[in-house]
């Protein structure tokens, strides 16, 4: 639990370094936090509705939350948060924050045995989720600007596929996904395309 939080905090410090911790960066911190909370609230409300109406087993409901509801609402939150941002690097920084906050706030409380040796390994197993969000950040920031719904479909597909693999196959699948996400994000990031990448300020 503490290890995951510390890894997330370290990532946040790196994020603040690269964004110069300026006024825009501070605003993005709050925007992302509020959007994440809104996504969590909507997921919880809909999950409660499904539980009341359909009375699925706890395991089935958890699977629906993880594989379907959470990706949809989180990607909707990312899409909505990006609407007011005109600079690509701002959008990239904002969506990347979702992964950092997930490590700091969400993952530590989702661990089954946070204070055991299993919790130690769970802490490092949570890291691939960060790269998931970085890959979706590349999509939202630099691709398909005129087709927001296409961005949403791609982001949700990436997110849901990762969650489904981890849920149904195991953490090893998450590690394989992390490698794919890293390579994909590095390949798709417009390192030398200044027109697409833009400037921070």
Describe this structure as you would to a colleague.
This protein has 201 residues and is mainly α. It has one domain. It has 9 helices and no strands. Helix 4 (88-110) packs antiparallel against helix 6 (128-142), helix 6 (128-142) runs antiparallel to helix 7 and helix 6 packs parallel to helix 8 (171-188). The longest helix is centred in the N-terminal third of the chain and has 32 residues, at 23-54.
Summarize the structure.
The protein has 201 residues and is an all-alpha fold. 82% of the residues lie in helices and 0% in strands.
Oligomeric state, counting identical vs distinct chains: single chain
Strand percentage lies at: under 5%
Helical content (DSSP H or I, runs of 4+): over 70%
What is the succession of H and E elements? HHHHHHHHH
General form: globular
Annotation, overall tally of beta strands:
0
Low-confidence stretches: none
The biggest beta sheet, please? none
The N- and C-terminal alpha carbons lie at a distance of: 36 Å
